[in-house]
Amino acid sequence: MTIHSVVIQKLLTTNAHIGRQVTTHHFKQFTYGFRNRQSIIDSDKTLICLRNALNFLSCLSRDPSSSFLFINTNPLFQPIIDEMTSRVTSLSPERASSLWKMRGFLTNSCSPKKFRSRHKKLVFAPTKMPDCVVIFDTERKSSVFLEAERLGIPIVALVDSGIPWEYYKKVTYPIPANDSVQFVYLICNMITKCLMLEKKKDGAKGTGKKATIKDQVESTSESKGSASDEVLVVPYDNLAPMSCADIADSKQLLDKLVVVKYNGALGKNMGFNGPKSLIEVKNGSTPLDLIVNQIQSLNSKYGCNIPLLLMNPKNTHKDIVKALEKYSTLDVDIHPFEQGERTQHESFVSEGGEDKWQSSKHGTHFLSLMNSGTLDVLLAQGKEYALVVNPDNVAGVVDPKILNHLAQNSIEYCSEVTPTTSTGLINFMASSLQGIFKLEDFTSDHSEKSVKGFKFIDTRSLWLNLKAIKRLVVTSALNLDNLSTLKLFENSIGISIPQSRFLPLNSTSDLFLLQSDLYSFTEGMFVRNDARVSPSDPSIALGPEFEKISDFKRRFETIPSIVKLDSLEVNGDVWFGADIVLKGKVVIDASPGLTLRIPDGVVLEDEEINDPTDI
């Protein structure tokens, strides 16, 4: 019998696998099924989450100044926890159990600590802010969750199948299990052994303060010197293609991939009441259709299983779940996750108002999802890589060629970048030469005015090694919304993709480009028209009359041909007929009060039109 089998058998004897009759949606990832109308918790996943939680506690305990706060109000557990805390240095659990009931046990820590009465002395708060809060019975600890989250204190907690989402999302290291007395005894015993083992290691290496995980990460990044401010950019054409001859190897590699997409971007600025993922961009297909079709095509071709994780804020979750119904017959494993209200607010409210969405925040939401226990489940399933798709990029591709390059070169962090419209730089990258560039050469703002002075646009599509994420996620130093984060990874690069692989959808001008004859799509991927000679796409600027999708559709009978177009600027009350061809630089500016109708079949080349006589 293997060690794993012995440990699983030990877990089963504690009844940790027996859940409740009702299982919340977000907890189903930890369940095995139902028996006698009770959910059965997967012991393998419990063991994985338990191991990760213990590893986190062990890492924290390496700092001699660290402290833990154990929270419990179940009298059955109290003798067990008393025994544990008597053997390790921690705050008194008896004190903590009384403090949390009074509320403000953490946030009021700056207030007077003691109050004297005639008969007894009350303590209102810990004298030192804990580095971690461990909760044993989560059912009655709502204030603890709220205050620990407010102060940014990580939470390790036992969670059962009935825990509400608003509390579950606040747990940094959930341990899915039935909180039986036997299991609490087991976990307390393991915590005690882990912490005492770290103390023995500390004693063997001599006295002196140890560096925290964050300090170790920062010192590692500093030791790399000036190279940490540089990025190796590899042209996409330099990547070796996957071998089509060995389907088994390709399947094995693709089985290690998971795709993550955030659906918090709203189409309000285009008059669309819903997420951008549901806007029709080409032949009735939406961005969500495209990514699902890509994965379906790869699953069918290689016989692999690439799961798709959808992170949805509360205001878009129902629409996304309803849209997923049409994929029920497809061979795609789709998991929608509803994000909390706080996450939702931060994702689309900015200085520009609610209609301006900050797409760079999807890296933060990815880490939030990984911290909720999903990372441990993915690693248990053999997943090693994650593609975090920029929600604004309609042309984001699940590319086996990039995945193969990451695996062959042990790359932990890869950001897809694209050259700006600088002709010299485009020609340089087209020459199949790779180069090293400064971080100051990159920008995430792809607007025409903002890219001046920069060499690359960071598309915000990330390829990440999940094992590296696991190594770094325990520290607050990790921030995937900043390209400078790559210096925390052992091996990181940027891959220069063609501009046709970065097609953001932020306005009807972008929609015009996508619906034109410049692009078609097959198997969920946009393909550029070979007749286009220029390496860059034409510049499209439609006036406020075209701002809403409904107005955009009414003003175009068909989208004009723009294969040979350099730029198009339209202002005023302009209406387009069918089968129009645009070439060179075209400016159409209707005077106030004048309606311009562009007739069917007309060809406009390098023209400026202000009234009907100019056509």
From TrEMBL:
Gene Ontology terms for molecular function: structural constituent of ribosome; UTP:glucose-1-phosphate uridylyltransferase activity
Cellular component per GO, a single term: ribonucleoprotein complex
Pfam families xref list: Ribosomal_S2 (PF00318), UDPGP (PF01704)
GO terms under biological process: translation; UDP-alpha-D-glucose metabolic process
Assigned keywords, A-Z: Nucleotidyltransferase, Ribonucleoprotein, Ribosomal protein, Transferase
Catalytic activity of the protein: alpha-D-glucose 1-phosphate + UTP + H(+) = UDP-alpha-D-glucose + diphosphate
Family, as annotated: Belongs to the UDPGP type 1 family. Belongs to the universal ribosomal protein uS2 family.
Protein name: UTP--glucose-1-phosphate uridylyltransferase
Organism annotation: Gossypium darwinii (Darwin's cotton)
